[in-house]
Structures are given as C-alpha cells and as structure tokens.
Request: fold
Amino acid sequence: MSRPKLLVVVQRYGDGVAGGAETHARELTKRLAPHLDVEVLTTAAQDYRTWENAFTAGIEWVDDVPVRRFPVMRPRAWDFKLYERRAYTTPHTLEDERTFVDQQGPYAPDLLEHLWRNGRDADHVLFFTYIYYPTVRGLPLVPERAVLVPTAHDEPALDLAIYEPVFHAPRAIAFNTEEERALVHTRFRNERIPSDILGVGVDVPEDRSADRFRQRWGIDGPVVLYIGRIVESKGCRELFANWARWRAAEPDRHATLVLIGQPEMAIPRRNDVVHLGVVSEEDKYDALEASVALAVPEVLSSMSMATLEAWSCGRPVICDAESNVVWGMARRAGGGLDVSRHVRGGPR
Reply:
C-alpha cells in the first residue's frame, strides 16, 4: 500500500544551514519520513544574506530523504533595502510589494515551475516561512494541498497586502506558539482556516560532556551561552550591553559569555566574551551541558529552537519580557528569567 506523498517547501535545507525555521523544517521532515513519502523542494543556497548557490542543483539525499534543489537565478540585490523601504513606506503600490518579494528572494522560478507541474501529484504540500519567495509565489499554486508553517513575528512585512493570500489560501496553518497564532489572527482575521499549535520537538544526544567542552576550549567557571546568528536583529547588541552592565556591577564574579554562531556584527573584545564560531552538534550540546543558562535576547520571534534545546538539557533561559513569544514560553514552562528584572533592574 502506497503512503501519502508530502512535499516540503523551504528556502534552505541541509548541512551547514543555520536558522530556526530551517532547523524546524529538517527536524519535522525527519519525523514525518517514516510515515509519509516525503520529498523536500528547496534552493541551492546556503546563506540567506546572498542566496549564493552553494549546493549543487539536482537531487541529493539528506537524512535518507530526497532533497530536490533548484538554482537561485539571481542573488539578493545589493540595494535590497531600497526595495524594502519602498514596500514599507506609505503610500506604495502592490507592484512595489511584488518587487520587494522578488528582490528579497531566494528567486528560484524553476522551483515554482516544478511545483506547478508536480504539486498536484502530492497529497500535502508543507510550506515553511511565510515571508520568502518560494512560499509567497508557490503556495497559491497548490492551495487545496497547502499547509503553512508561517514562523511569523511582529514585523512590517505582515502589514503588506501581498501576504494576504498566503494566510487565507492554505488548507491549514501550523503555528509554533499561542502568541504567534494570536498575532496572525489579529492581523489577517483568518480564524476560518483550520489551525493548531504544533511546535517542534528536539532530539538531545545522551553523550553530553561539560568536561569535554572545557578541555577542548579552555574555558572554566560559570558559562552563559548564546546560540544563533550574532546580529542586531537577534538582540545581540542588547545582549552585549547587558553583559557589560552586569559585569561592571559585579566585577569580582567570574563568568564567561560564550557565543556560538555566525557573526554578522562586531563582537566586543573582552576577556569574558568568547566566540567559538559555528560548531558541531556535539560541541553545541557539550556547551549547553557546561552552561548555567542560555541567553535568548531576541524580541521578535515565532519560536526559539535554542530555548527548547536548553530546556532539554535542563538549563534555564535568560530572555526579555518584551518578547511575547520567548517570555510566554518561559513563563508557562517556569524555565526562564526576565533580563529586565535581573540585569537592567526594571520592574516586572
């Protein structure tokens, strides 16, 4: 007996791809693969900042799942921010919004052509991330089969008319958190679309060693860990400022802020800040095992995969109560501290 066929559409996929939505897509695909006939449709890009083709177009197997990669036909425009400003400025036209989506990328028309020709042969088509070209252009091609995982957070793009069909056309929507669903329902009034809070699970390796981490990296004493892209949009400027403020207030307390991830901004040159770069899964979980807490400074988020990984290792998070999603997760789980209360000294 044949199994139902599922297509997973996502902007990037595979080894060396960093990003919460992309990690979510891969983890969910691995869990669905034993039960469905799954194929991933994605691009050959690895870096969202350029969409440069880093992988070979065609079919490869990742985690025993076929991944069909399509070339990105043009990189992200060097003047992309100009198109973004035009789309976000009032007044603007629908054509401004279409141009914004195309210039934001990843611009992969061959993926859309494949979806148009073959999408109706699938029983279900799962689209990850509402904002990018493959979902905006692809979901309306197969609305009766589409399930959207929007990974939405409060940002100007949600106010653009071009995203109305993305949130009104699918057969169902899978949200990560209650806060994300409330945000989308408030903005689009699309409660008629069946939806649920699905979230995502994480597999934590049993072999995790704080001693192995300390020996490899030469770090002793308490560790506060950050995992993710080191960029202002993820709250890293505030993270560094809060770290400096706390260390100045308690200079005799020995601790190290350890950063794991790709840097996209300057990192403070301090003896108590150590950047490890992009590391293996073993090193990441060893770092979690060695840490006393995970710092999650971003305010705009649909969910935090790193938070789930930290909790699975028994580590709390330090977050900002201005983040409805992460603070909501931490408050419900009893697994986090509000940085404004414990570092900035504000009332919460």
